[in-house]
Write a structure and sequence with these properties.
The complex is a heterodimer of chains A (about 425) and B (about 400). Chain A is α+β, with helices and mostly antiparallel strands. Chain A has helices spanning about 10-25, 50-70, 90-100, 110-125, 130-140, 255-265, 275-280, 285-295, 300-330, 335-360, 375-385, 390-405; strands at about 25, 105, 145-150, 165-170, 170-180, 190-195, 205-215, 220-225, 235-245, 250. The longest helix of chain A is centred in the last third of the chain and has 29 residues, at about 300-330. Chain B folds into 3 domains: about 5-130, Acyl-CoA dehydrogenase/oxidase, N-terminal domain (Butyryl-Coa Dehydrogenase, subunit A, domain 1, Orthogonal Bundle); about 135-235, Beta Barrel (Butyryl-CoA Dehydrogenase, subunit A, domain 2), CATH 2.40.110; about 240-385, Butyryl-CoA Dehydrogenase, subunit A, domain 3. Classes of the chains: A alpha+beta (about 425), B alpha+beta (about 400).
Chain lengths: ~425, ~400
Amino acid sequence: MPSEPDDSGMDQFVAEARAFLDEHATRRGQTSDEVVWGEGEDRITYFSTDPPDVEAAKVAAAKSWQKVRYDHGFGWIVGPREFGGRRLSSLHDLVYDGLEAEYDVPDTAVLSLIGLGMIGPTILAHGTDDLKRRYLPAMYAGDVIACQLFSEPGAGSDLAGLATRAVRDGDGWLLNGQKVWTSVAHHAAIGLALCRTDPDKPKHKGITAFVVDMSAPGVEIRPLRQMSGGAEFNEVFLTDVYVPDDHRLGPVDGGWGVALTTLMNERASVGGEGAGAAGRAVGLPFLTELVRANGRLDDAAVRRRLAELFADQAATGYLNHQALRRFRAGEQPGPEASVSKLMYAQNLTRGAHFAAEVIGPRLVADTGEWGTFSWTELLLATPALRILGGTEEIMKNILAERVLGLPKEPSIDNRSPFRELRRSGRAGE
Amino acid sequence: MSTGTGEAIADTARLGASDAELAELRTSVRDFLATRADEAAVRVAMDSERGYDDKVWTQIAAELGLPALALPTEYGGDGYGLVELSVVAGEMGRVLLPSPFFSTVVLAATAVVASGDAVAAERLLPGISAGTTTAALAVPDRAGSWELAAGELGVRVTGSTAEVLLEGVAPLVVGGATADVVLVVADGPGGPTLYEVDATSAGVHRTALRSLDLTRRMARIDFRAARARRVGEPGAAVPVVAHVLDIATAALAAEQVGGARACLETATAYAKERMQFGRPIGSFQAVKHKCADMLTRVQVADAAATEAARAVDGVPGAPEPGVAAAVAHAVCSEAFLAVAAENIQVHGGIGFTWEHSAHLYYRRAKASQLLFGGPAVYYERLLRRAGV
């Protein structure tokens, strides 16, 4: 940020936000935590499994709601004014989110999770004025969805080992290679791509970042079907994709610094409250009804496991409250946020397996009975939680090295030229 | 609290320290303990006859005023709450300070306040506040779970209405061998009732027990026609003990977090300096991830203990106190035990020696986990508090 954001006038901001929401959205009725067993939609979704037409309608709704927000000054609360922002503090952002959660509005995750949350701040930090003017207002107005072209088949946890090549071609660059696990690529107008520009330098020092037009010739997007059955992610193949040099982000071979900006903006809220269908399903009220419905409420072993699960869930919730309190008091979230993410994955996974144990064999095939086979959706999603957004192992390295100050593994790949490293996958060469 | 005058005592204005004041309190307690209760001093104290250093206890009261911190102002206290008391408990747990603090202040004084008996409070709390009276609380339920049901207590009332006499055994009493005053829940005419006994009087027979936790000793107390005074109303001890349990498990949770953090720090420091295979062992992921797991446990436990203290103090926005205290008791008990065990593992052979501090923490962790009934009891209590 060029200058200190405005943290004052919160009451007025709240009043303004409330008036805006009252005018443009419907306030939700009193939501009850009470579970009525056997009633309601029998789905425990984590990843979307919407058919294409439903998905397209949801994306359109997300874009138009973002447009309404933007037109009324709530599209980019923390952003600079010259690019359509309000230049208010993160606290204002948080307060707005809290207010909006009381209303029935379209889910805008398709825009916000990657594009507005991570790519926008990266373009703002590293882009030329031209690039910022061209993309930032359009992104925050909901017109442009952005995706992140980082991971590759040969570069997962070791992102700096990426091999997609970018070579000079006149006034621009030609990109060749393969990206993977790209969320929302099939809806995206632009992508932020990390490419190898100098394989003779050590791996962190020969990477350059580009803003890629996803409709450019040579960009091919293929859905990647997950083990859970749906296809929420994509593979993106880049074949002689031309990118003008004015779409380069940051210096040539300076892309690693750009990537760090993006990764720092990866929302710590991956480990949030566990809202949504899955979070509700593994919460104590729902699991208690599950246990009751299966006649196991007096089973000491079941009660013990339920209590153990609830204790950890509640304590994780307390940890998140504490982080929020500190954030409100002006503290920036640190690497400790990894604790939340680890606990979130663990709690959701344990919850799903607890339910499976209570249900027993009736879970393994769809008998039509409410509240049984629907758990398979969550059971098949939870392995992803230990991988996406940084594997459990990488998270533990971060905690051990950055919080506890334990020494790194002796590295054998930070000084040698990239082309001499032993690697898996050879895409882009 | 539901007992008549109890609310009058419990509701007197509770002071809330600011974050800066809490940090200052933490620093002053930590600095004091660093000079007066380092490991060598703790070992001398735990091997002494009383099991703690009376001079250190006197200083804790006279110079730091810690016993008074969370007691009501009308009885010589400072009127703070569990949030502040937890800071003290955490620092004491960090160094495994052998001290009458837990039995006297956290258990006995809390019971007196919760009883709502203003006369007993006037009689006992000023001395506890000043550090001149030590006390213990005996809850001799048969299961050792601090869950009371009439007719199942190991101590019962005999004698006439003019003179109350107690008969029976309290087999496991924290700090019971050295306390000046013993508060005991006994089966009385109206059900479980709290009584006060002079620990040195005839009819009170105390046996110091060999204890798993060398830094917090247990005693057996036999009551043989021991003269007692009733504290609070007849048959009113059930809600009193339930309230004490909330406060005591929440304070214990803070203490457990202090101990767990000490284990984490010791293990981490050792992982940085211990060289094997030409590298610090902390650079191996097998060790590094163990330390990260310990950190995760400690952070979650810390949040649970903090939230429980805020809940019990009635801080706005905090969860329901009974649930939060039960969550903290379970999570912090499990975390401390796991971290204390992993501390030994990170140290390898040296961690299994008598000379190393690791076993003292492991002992405290295991004994604390079982102090109010252990896992089977605390998980079931948690479910009940949550309405399951």
